[in-house]
Amino acid sequence: MQNEKGTPVAAISGAASGIGLALATLYAQRGVRVIAGYYPQDPHDPALASAQVEAARGEALWLPLNVGSTASVDAFIAQGVQHFGRLDYVVANAGILRRAGIDEMSDARWDEMLNVDLTGVMRLFRAAAAHLHSGASLVAVSSIAGGVYGWQDHAHYAAAKAAVPGICRSLAVELAPRGVRCNAIIPGLIETPQSLDKHNSLGPEGLAKAAHAIPLGRVGRADEVAKTIAFLTSEESSYLTGQSLIVDGGLTVRWPDYGESMQLASKRCVVSGAASGIGAAIATLFAREGAHLILTDRNSEHLEAMVTRCRALGVPCFGVVADVGEVDGATAGVDACLERFDGIDILVNNAGMLTQARCMDITLAMWEQMMAVDLRSVFLATQRALPSMLAQRWGRVINIASQLGIKGGAELSHYAAAKAGVIGFTKSLALEVSADNVLVNAIAPGPIETPLIDGINQAWKTAKAAELPLGRFGRADEVAPVALLLASEPGGNLFVGQTLGPNSGDVMP
């Protein structure tokens, strides 16, 4: 028997995978010795789990444990205390998850679930109670399924998990005179072997889809839950008992949309050139429709203002200062989206430049700059976004072209060539990826009052407005709804390789 009284000891059930393994590893890193329980019939290899804890330079005693058996639980605690000489923290983490609708819910299925997920908690705490001293801490793992929400085809699981906080509240009162605290933790959608089981839980695709409803834009990690449990067993939470802490990325506090559903709710979106003009209008409209946004622009001051505006609409929004004329700048927005939101759903290639010059006066540098900003950047950003979109079999790429890419324009040959290239790129790529539900389309606006045309001479603007059937230039907020149409479902579902023209009648294909 070891009796290092200054070194705490934690007993963890279900320690061979998921949250339990993450906690055992974290404890090892922090010098807490671990009594690690594993269920021999689980597919998880305790040798691999043990190696992970040892790699963290921790000391652990691995013991077989079936929380559905009183004899097994009693032996687990007794052997652990005999080995280490003390017991400070007890974490009831072990559980099972089985899918069963009420019509197929046998007594055996119901009893099995409650025996493990509810009575198993009681067994572990009961066996540990006699060994606990003042300052000890108990934590039980519940779930938002039952702890907060219901879950179709999981009534037995939800019933067990709903009762776990009740056990903890009662034991918090009962054990408080002995200086022992008891709390529950209620994880949300956490990526673990259990949640990745597509038969009994959500599976990888279900988790990815559900992540869109989480304010932080992603599912949680086991180590993030483990850190919260470690806090509950530490001195930092010495005045916390009888509580149930929810660790869910904000999922359960999000205000439900009781009115018309947001068309882009939690869609992960990148808009380039978003600090002004059409890009700013698209970003604002997408934010109103619930998109999670990454905005890029060269103008850091205006970009910061746009990020603030979109966040005020209640969505996650982050800015990336980038010049799409540079190779790294062209992909910076997509890179940020993949890193922060773990994927991308919608890409709006809007950033561009416009200069005016006769063809004979266009230098090679002017030509190459125009192609880099208005055409090459579209290719680079789209190429970076495609693997994520193709993997999830859903994506929308919206390229902002121009009606001049269709009809041409005097003293704008370099600009018209780049925008014609965008339209050609859009059509060709649409043929490649539409079968995987990645839809690529373009918008070719006519003259729009934006900072982009500030460099065009006023005489041309006046004459051009007089030519238009509507008699005026358009506004950026009149173009943004076209992008929303292409990005949304079902509105954009049948648009493939199209070029839509909000152009005041300037071009009528």
Automatic annotation (TrEMBL):
<keyword id="KW-0276">Fatty acid metabolism</keyword>
<comment type="pathway">
    <text>Lipid metabolism; fatty acid biosynthesis.</text>
</comment>
<dbReference type="Pfam" id="PF13561">
    <property type="entry name" value="adh_short_C2"/>
</dbReference>
<dbReference type="InterPro" id="IPR020904">
    <property type="entry name" value="Sc_DH/Rdtase_CS"/>
</dbReference>
<comment type="similarity">
    <text>Belongs to the short-chain dehydrogenases/reductases (SDR) family.</text>
</comment>
<protein>
    <recommendedName>
        <fullName>3-oxoacyl-[acyl-carrier-protein] reductase FabG</fullName>
        <ecNumber>1.1.1.100</ecNumber>
    </recommendedName>
</protein>
<dbReference type="InterPro" id="IPR036291">
    <property type="entry name" value="NAD(P)-bd_dom_sf"/>
</dbReference>
<dbReference type="GO" id="GO:0004316">
    <property type="term" value="F:3-oxoacyl-[acyl-carrier-protein] reductase (NADPH) activity"/>
</dbReference>
<keyword id="KW-0560">Oxidoreductase</keyword>
<keyword id="KW-0444">Lipid biosynthesis</keyword>
<comment type="function">
    <text>Catalyzes the NADPH-dependent reduction of beta-ketoacyl-ACP substrates to beta-hydroxyacyl-ACP products, the first reductive step in the elongation cycle of fatty acid biosynthesis.</text>
</comment>
<keyword id="KW-0275">Fatty acid biosynthesis</keyword>
<keyword id="KW-0106">Calcium</keyword>
<dbReference type="InterPro" id="IPR002347">
    <property type="entry name" value="SDR_fam"/>
</dbReference>
<keyword id="KW-0443">Lipid metabolism</keyword>
<dbReference type="InterPro" id="IPR050259">
    <property type="entry name" value="SDR"/>
</dbReference>
<dbReference type="GO" id="GO:0006633">
    <property type="term" value="P:fatty acid biosynthetic process"/>
</dbReference>
